[in-house]
Amino acid sequence: MFELGPALHHAFELLRGFAVSHGMSRDAALLLSKIIQANILVLGVAVIPMVLVYAERKVSAFMQARLGPMHVGPWGILQTFADGVKLMLKEDVVPAGADKWVHFLAPVVAVAPVFVCFAPVPFGQGLTPVDLDTGVLFIFAVSGVSTIGILLGGWGSGNKFSMLGGLRAAAQLLSYEIPRVLSVIPVLMWYGSMSLGTIALAQHGRWLGILPKWFIFYPVIGQIAFLIFLISSVAETNRTPFDIPEAESELVAGFHTEFSGLKFALFFLAEYAYVFLASAMGTALFLGGGDGFLLPNGILPSWIWFLLKTFALVFLFLWFRWTYPRLRIDRLMQFCWKFLMPWSFVNIALTGLLVLVRQR
Amino acid sequence: MSPSLSSLVFYAFSAMLVVTAVGVVTLRNVFYSAVSLVAALTIVAGLFVLLGADFLGAAQVLVYVGGILIIMLFVIMLSQQPRDLLQRQTNDQWIAGLFFALTIGVSLVRAFTYFVSQTPPDGDIAPTSASLGRLLLGEMLLPFEAVSLILLAALVGAVVFGQEKNA
Question: What fold does the segment set B3-127 form as a domain?
Fold first, then answer.
């Protein structure tokens, strides 16, 4: 059992003490340690997509009875690094009809919010980078900014396929944002907090000594909320069966048709980081965060549990992508507005009733 | 945050806000204007957070940047014509407009200086969402519901006007 949070906390205390004893002012040391912590988070977020790309290729390969990448490193583990180097060395092509500045800005705007979004995620005991009181709202708000990057990419490429992809992205992401936010409201109502850390901590405990008190196990409300959250998260991350904005059989590659090299890589970094973020949010909101189960307490530290559950959810995302066909755009919108929205309202009303019953 | 650092951040944000806000009303390309409005509203959210209004900052980004501006960009992309990219935003009345804007600006400054003299509360400002919720659903319930009704009416009106005539 090794809890990373307190250890890191201790290490930074020691470092600060060392800096102060060598003549650095207390404020400057604090600021510097914050900057280092932020950089650790940014690096982590930048590395996660590499793992996810490898996982995606392997999972898809096994689902289709293939081997997937096998040659670079053992079982092709270094394939993503090779791809990263390739993408960095590739020529950056800007089409003649493109708007140079918007074309440049698009991947930046798409990827920058991702790094900020991970700030309120409770990765384990004492491992919340910034425990914001408005954590859930903050993540929804900031992740919405990435949509603007996709729109910029669609408009700035000067290409009708990109433009169509951008328009579809705007319509889809804006629509699915609503059931996604509404599906989380029951959780916020039940625990009376918007801080992801508080919500995850409140789910520790057992019913009858066996069943974990995770929100997903609350009868009816938990399951409906989780399903709506999962479905709209898949739509929000532009993945099959909701990958209308980049549908390759209709739109070449949609909004990122005209992007190559590092710009293309940034779009993909954003997509995979959002998959991880959605899974991490699902873990903290519905699966009890770093709470363990089955194994006796304390065998695995909370951050390992958190990562295990998050990667289980990531696997669901990959599974959906390689087993479901793509939805048509009108059905996609109907599904959102006529099915997910009403049910999320019903779920909120149900939760309100249950909260009333609990207060009695 | 120490006072000097927070005022540094404040002035940096304000400078960026002024530059982007001027960009919104002067750039000739309508798409660029919309993009600088995105930047301006995001910086306003930053200012809200700096003032300790965490809920307001997040709501600002969620509603304005993540919602309304995406719709605006959507509309621009749908209805775009080549002449929109070289449109002048001002006409011969710009001097009168400038005078009008200055009047509003000066009166706003006069109004706010009244509050600046009152000292702000000491120490860290507490999270606002819980107290905001209590206020909205307690003391301010009637105005809150009235505003919701007006928004609902606007929504229904938009649907009625948007319906196809010979459907």
Answer: Four Helix Bundle (Hemerythrin (Met), subunit A) (1.20.120)
Tell me the backbone φ, ψ of residue A206, rounded to 5 degrees. Answer: -135, 145
Q: What is the pLDDT of residues A179-218, one digit of tens each?
A: 999 999 999 888 888 888 888 888 887 777 777 888 888 8
Inter-chain CB proximity B61 and A173 less than 8 Å? no
Q: Which residues of B touch A166 (CB under 8 A)?
A: 77
ipTM score of complex = 0.79
For chain B, what are the domain ranges? 3-127, 129-167
Query: Rounded to an integer, what distance in angstroms lies between the CA atom of residue A157 and that of residue A255?
Result: 8
**Nearest by CB: A167 against B60, B62, B77:** B77
Q: What is the DSSP letter of A254?
A: G
What would the DSSP string read from start to end of A285-344?
HHS-TT---SSPTTSS-HHHHHHHHHHHHHHHHHHHHHHSPPPPHHHHHHIIIIIIHHHH
The answer to whether A194 and A135 have CB atoms below 8 angstroms apart is yes
| Chain A with chain B: Cβ pairs closer than 8 A | 76
